[in-house]
Amino acid sequence: MNNLLTAERVSNDISDNYVFQRSLLAYYTAANHISNRVLEIGTGTGYGITIVAPKAKSFITIDKNEPSIEILQQAKLIGNTEFRKASVPPLPFADNTFDFVISFQVIEHIPDDKKLIQEVKRVLRPGGKFIVTTPNKKMSLTRNPWHIREYTAEEGNTLLKQAFSSVESLGVFGNEKIMEYYQKNKERVENITRWDILNLQYHLPRQILQIPYDILNRMNRNKLHKQNSKLTESIRMEDYYIGPVNDQCFDLFYIAEK
User: Fold this and answer.
1) pLDDT band, very low/low/confident/very high, at 7 (cuts 50, 70, 90)
2) Whose CA is closest to 104, among 26, 220, 162?
3) What is the pLDDT of residues 35-81, one digit of tens each?
4) Measured distance CA(239)–CA(227) in Å, rounded
5) What are the residues facing 211 on neighbouring strands?
6) Could you tell me which residue, 250 or 212, shows the higher pLDDT?
7) pLDDT tens for residues 111-147?
8) Looking at residue 68, what DSSP letter applies?
9) CA angle 193, 196, 199 (to 5 degrees)
């Protein structure tokens, strides 16, 4: 299955709105920090380009998949943006090239996460910063077989401190509207996983589970939208906020400095 068709690639499809608006917050927050030469690891569907690129002197975004026509058109219109196809690590850039590296919801997919952060450190200039998000394992409702691993706040902080001189640990939280959606989602997921009486989701190889998980995930998002269309469609980026990390955040949000 092409990853671009999976629920792992967040889009602005209305059934993804709960996740999409949270992802927007990461990009807008990063846009308030970045300047000069910026690298993004993980273009995805490209919705972050128009948010981040205008704040940079030059912006390079890389992804393991070929870019869509829309992504290439966005890059051309902005003018300072370049797309490169690359699987990471390593990073195909010289030492001390970038002032900022951003990467959202990617590191959990990388087999060698330690090598990735060492590569990020290498391509950053002294004083450069790595802005990264990843799901908070404590808030995951089930195993996600597309993820090689997930992190607690402490695990993510420990990983980054192996390479960076300072790490600011934050979290992405939601208001009452977000928590209402989360609870409805949790109930539906529990209704599905109750049939897994042998707990196979945690014992089978993750590659076997990826397509069934993705089908069920998409069906679940569509069903939640159908049953709660007003709630799903009303969610906005402003319903999320970033604050000091704890176990109740949806995503871990780190700013690490070289």
Assistant:
1) low
2) 26
3) 999 999 999 989 999 999 999 999 999 999 988 888 888 788 888 99
4) 20
5) none
6) 250
7) 999 999 999 999 999 999 999 999 999 999 999 999 9
8) P
9) 105
> What confidence score (pLDDT) does residue 11 get?
73
Residue 233: strand pairing partners: none
Relative to beta strand 251-257, strand 124-135 is: antiparallel
Mean pLDDT of the chain: 92
Distance CA 108, CA 64 (A): 15
Give the CA count within 13 Å in the CB-facing half-sphere of 81.
Answer: 24
Contact (CB, 8 A) for 215 and 142: no
**First-to-final CA distance of the chain:** 38
Strands 98-104 and 166-174, sheet pairing:
unpaired
Asked if 188 contacts 166 with a C-beta cutoff of 8 angstroms, the reply is no
What is the identity of the amino acid at 135?
P
- Cβ atoms of residues 245 and 152 within 8 Å: no
- DSSP designation for 33: T
3-state secondary structure of 245: coil
Evaluate whether 254 touches 160 at the Cβ level (below 8 Å). yes
Q: How confident is the model at residue 1 (pLDDT cuts 50, 70, 90)?
A: very low
Q: Which helix H or strand E contains 180, and what residues bound it?
A: helix 176-193
- Decide if 137 contacts 144 (C-beta within 8 A): no
Decide: residue 92, CB within 10 A, 0-12 exposed, 13-18 middle, 19+ buried.
middle
pTM of the model: 0.93
Which residues, in sequence order, are CB contacts of 195 under 8 Å at separation 6+?
A: none
